[in-house]
């Protein structure tokens, strides 16, 4: 177990940051949008029925109080679905024009309706999946949106969804994410929301779940029993998206199967008759500074591990197209290929093998094939269909071993079909999805053994000490592990009902999901653990053991050697099915300046012994009735994922057995196998497990002031019935609902409501500061926690407490501040994005003897403090016009511009640091 960190009081740097914020405020105050547009842009309630596009636009402009200019010929024959709900000026026009092939721009206080191509070229040429045109402004501080414009201005590293979330508060990352030696990887980052475990988030892609239940905490590729996995079934590239939405508090009843947060990635309809882009992005170790201590410099030069890789070369290729073959049909298509090569040493200590490659290059590959179509059948009926194929392959080797290459295969494919039809009083939405994800291993051999070095035939190994000179060989065998999911959701949003001065809204829905997990070890696999001396390879059965025996003299004087200890992983296959049913309903009452949302979600599945009901309650108060000051309260319950990983544990362990043999009577005896017994205990208590859940309380305040939206959000989470492992009296372990966690978070945010004009530039600013305090009894559901550990007191930083009350050991940085500034210079076709992050100092404990706690001898833990981390990340986008509506472009991303030396933690080799300055270059062409 890694040692926990503990939130500390704000340091001098935090106080300095507060003073810097005070300095920023006057600058914001000096810049204002034109008064008329500022008033018109306010979020208001609209109830505009479906009709011709001409009539709906005219009515909306009149109610919003803006002047409208449009060529009547553009609107002829076009229909609109109308507008129901709360919208700002830009959001309202975008919604009304959605799917029409038209766009809008604001010029000299006038709203102009133009072709979508022309709207996209305002200030910048149209790009594939361009800046978001349809975006519902979040009505809760528990919801955050990163639109296309913001994504384009971020340095998103590998281009994965979760790496882009670092601009948002309440998102915590692994403290090792930016460690220099891990930068050759391309896998999506793992995140924690409000202290929840990384596997307790729900991931959605265009409304389809891509959460992975294939043992998401198993991240070690060298685990012989199971392939490595992750919490996301797909590695989706952000270039596909028009927005990412994160719901971290006051989450509506529509969303379930999480106790952390909901992360939604969405693509949007094309806005051009035809267009596309092609690009290539490169990042290399030569373009990154390594911050290493003296011991690490030598270790990295001789590294055999991809967690301390001294070199890498990463490349991303993107091709995308969009178009509208007909007025009612839109298509987008994309292909993304990411590769990484990681050169390493094959043998530790810089040794050169006499009969094997001493230098080996691991490889990573991730691909996204994506096609989505949008079809407007009638003005009130719309459909969308997408198909995708997103495989991942990581090629690894076992260090200090010959013939040890193997592939970890992840990712998957699926189909996603949506249909919505609007009636007089209800909008009904359907979504039918099927997907398949895998976490499998493809190995060239089905046995692994560690021989003692012999000059005759086992002569490729290395000598690590005076008593150890070994030659490893082989791999862990093939495993196919898949997750198949078919799901159907129907949702009805009923037309609001007006009664006197109150408005009543209803939403109802149903989800039905069938999930199947398969585990298939294709053939027996052996892991030989120990050798003994022998003068013969003859077996008791009259044959000769040519695989597990050698008569070549070993370096330590044995005449020969044979394996006498083995773990056998037997061939086998099993399936686990689960049927899940969810019902949800939500009611909203609006009365003058108050809005009350009451919801509930019912969930039942085959693997859970009892059904669950999640109440969701939120109260919104528009204090003065002008959307300037809003108060938000909430009390909610969230239930986590199903028990699929827990049920399959017993089946995986049941395939294992241990074997021994000896040299007896001049021959090698037959293997004597003892079946594993610990797996039986896992089954014993599963039927009595409860579904883990989290209770949430929310208090939030938002204020419009000085052209910006200011927010303060306080969230309290109490997690109950979390799953951990307990020792079983008869041996082995059982799963039990005895884990506990608690989190207290606070987030302060400022975000400009519209771009601010400074000379020739337009600027968008967002600032977020959050505080996190997490206590947890365990790191994940596989951690073995004994009751005595929980009950034993410890002395922590001078105070006595129970072991399970200690702060979390990861995903628990106490204070983080981030300032994101996007500057656009349209005349120069230049966009500059800057992200400044300050992560306050944190402390972790180290065991230092014992101390007295209430008359009892307790383990004593002293805290080590690590300095604050400051990073400045920059992205520069520059476009070069080539022809009408076409351009070449280049994007330069710079992580850690100032090349700061940021500490992570200490290890046996000294202080570990984050990466230094790193460059990424992308160049391409848009048409």
UniProtKB/TrEMBL annotation:
Endpoints of the signal sequence: 1-29
Family: Belongs to the TonB-dependent receptor family.
Family matches, as SMART domains: STN
Keyword Nucleus part of the UniProt annotation: no
Location(s), subcellular: Cell outer membrane
Membrane topology: Multi-pass membrane protein
Stretches assigned to the Secretin/TonB short N-terminal domain: 66-116
InterPro entries the record matches: Beta-barrel_TonB_sf, Plug_dom, Secretin/TonB_short_N, TonB-dep_rcpt-like
Keywords (A to Z) from UniProt: Cell outer membrane, Membrane, Receptor, Signal, Transmembrane, Transmembrane beta strand, Transport
Protein name: TonB-dependent receptor
């Amino acid at each position: 177990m890694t040692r926990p960190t503990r939130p500390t009081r704000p340091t001098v740097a935090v106080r300095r940051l507060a003073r810097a914020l005070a300095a920023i405020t006057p600058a914001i105050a000096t810049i204002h949008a034109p008064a008329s547009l500022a008033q018109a842009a306010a979020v208001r309630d609209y109830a505009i029925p479906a009709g011709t596009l001409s009539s709906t636009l005219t009515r909306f402009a009149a109610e919003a109080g803006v002047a409208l200019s449009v060529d009547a010929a553009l609107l002829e024959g076009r229909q609109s679905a109308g507008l129901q709900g709360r919208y700002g000026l830009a959001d309202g026009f975008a919604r009304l024009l959605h799917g029409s092939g038209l766009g809008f721009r604001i010029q000299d206080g006038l709203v102009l309706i133009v072709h979508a191509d022309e709207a996209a070229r305002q200030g910048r040429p149209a790009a594939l999946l361009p800046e978001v045109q349809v975006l519902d402004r979040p009505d809760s501080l528990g919801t955050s949106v990163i639109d296309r414009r913001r994504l384009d201005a971020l340095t998103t590293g590998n281009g994965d969804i979760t790496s882009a979330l670092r601009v948002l508060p309440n998102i915590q990352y692994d403290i090792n994410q930016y460690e220099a030696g891990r930068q050759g990887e391309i896998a999506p980052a793992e995140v924690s929301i409000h202290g929840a475990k990384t596997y307790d988030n729900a991931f959605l892609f265009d409304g389809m779940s891509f959460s992975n239940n294939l043992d998401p905490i198993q991240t070690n590729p060298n685990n012989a029993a199971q392939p490595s996995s992750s919490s996301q079934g797909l590695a989706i590239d952000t270039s596909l998206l028009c927005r990412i939405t994160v719901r971290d508090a006051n989450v509506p009843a529509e969303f379930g199967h999480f106790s952390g947060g909901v992360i939604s990635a969405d693509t949007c309809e094309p806005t051009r008759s035809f267009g596309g882009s092609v690009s290539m992005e490169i990042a290399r170790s030569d373009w990154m500074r390594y911050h290493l201590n003296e011991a690490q410099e030598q270790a990295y030069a001789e590294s055999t591990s991809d967690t301390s890789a001294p070199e890498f070369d990463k490349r991303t290729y993107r091709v995308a197209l969009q178009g509208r073959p007909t007025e009612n049909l839109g298509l987008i298509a994309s292909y993304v290929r990411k590769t990484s090569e990681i050169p390493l040493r094959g043998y530790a200590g810089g040794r050169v093998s006499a009969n094997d490659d001493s230098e080996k290059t691991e490889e990573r590959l991730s691909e996204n094939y994506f096609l989505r179509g949008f079809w407007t059948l009638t003005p009130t009926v719309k459909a969308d269909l997408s198909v995708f194929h997103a495989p991942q392959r990581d090629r690894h080797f076992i260090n200090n071993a010959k013939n040890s290459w193997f592939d970890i295969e992840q990712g998957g494919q699926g189909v996603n079909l949506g249909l919505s039809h609007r009636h007089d009083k209800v909008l009904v939405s359907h979504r039918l999805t099927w997907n398949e994800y895998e976490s499998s291993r493809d190995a060239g051999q089905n046995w692994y053994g560690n021989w003692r070095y012999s000059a005759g035939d086992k002569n490729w190994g290395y000598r690590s000490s005076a008593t150890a000179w070994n030659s490893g060989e082989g791999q862990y065998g093939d495993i196919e592990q898949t997750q198949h999911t078919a799901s159907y959701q129907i949702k009805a949003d009923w037309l609001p009902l007006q009664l006197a001065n109150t408005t009543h809204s209803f939403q109802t829905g149903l989800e039905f999901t069938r999930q199947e997990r398969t585990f298939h070890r294709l053939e027996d696999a052996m892991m030989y653990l120990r050798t003994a001396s022998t003068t013969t390879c003859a077996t008791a059965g009259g044959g000769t053991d040519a695989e597990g025996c050698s008569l070549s003299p070993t370096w330590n004087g044995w005449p020969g050697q044979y394996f006498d200890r083995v773990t056998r992983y037997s061939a086998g296959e099993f399936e686990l099915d689960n049927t899940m049913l969810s019902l949800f309903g939500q009611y909203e009452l609006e009365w003058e300046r108050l809005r009350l949302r009451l919801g509930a979600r019912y969930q039942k599945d085959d693997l859970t012994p009892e059904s669950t009901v999640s109440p969701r309650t939120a109260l919104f108060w528009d204090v003065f009735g002008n959307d300037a000051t809003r108060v938000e309260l909430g009390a909610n319950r969230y239930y986590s994922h199903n028990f699929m990983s827990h049920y399959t544990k017993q089946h995986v362990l049941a395939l294992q057995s241990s074997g021994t043999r000896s040299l007896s009577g001049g021959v090698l005896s037959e293997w004597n196998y003892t079946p594993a017994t610990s797996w039986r205990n896992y089954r014993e208590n599963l039927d009595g497990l409860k579904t883990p859940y989290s209770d949430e309380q929310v208090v939030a305040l938002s204020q419009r002031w000085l052209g910006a939206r200011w927010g303060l959000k306080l969230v309290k989470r109490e997690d109950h019935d979390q799953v951990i492992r307990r020792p079983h009296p008869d041996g082995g372990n059982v799963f039990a609902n005895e884990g506990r966690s608690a989190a207290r978070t606070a987030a302060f945010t400022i975000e400009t409501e519209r771009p601010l004009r400074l000379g020739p530039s337009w600027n968008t600013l967002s600032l977020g500061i959050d505080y996190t305090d997490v206590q947890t009894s365990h790191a994940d559901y596989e951690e073995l926690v004994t009751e005595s550990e929980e009950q034993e007191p410890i002395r922590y930083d001078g105070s006595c407490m129970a072991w399970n009350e200690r702060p979390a050991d990861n995903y628990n940085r106490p204070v983080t501040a981030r300032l994101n500034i996007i500057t656009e210079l349209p005349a120069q076709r230049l966009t500059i994005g800057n992200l400044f992050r300050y992560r306050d100092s944190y402390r972790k404990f180290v065991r230092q003897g014992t101390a007295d706690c209430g008359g009892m001898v307790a383990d004593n833990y002293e805290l080590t403090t690590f300095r604050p981390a400051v990073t400045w990340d920059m992205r520069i986008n520059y476009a070069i016009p080539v022809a009408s509506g076409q351009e070449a472009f280049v994007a330069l991303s710079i992580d850690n511009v100032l090349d700061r030396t940021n500490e992570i933690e200490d290890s046996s080799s000294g202080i570990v640091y984050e990466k230094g300055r790193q460059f990424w270059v992308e160049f391409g062409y848009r048409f």
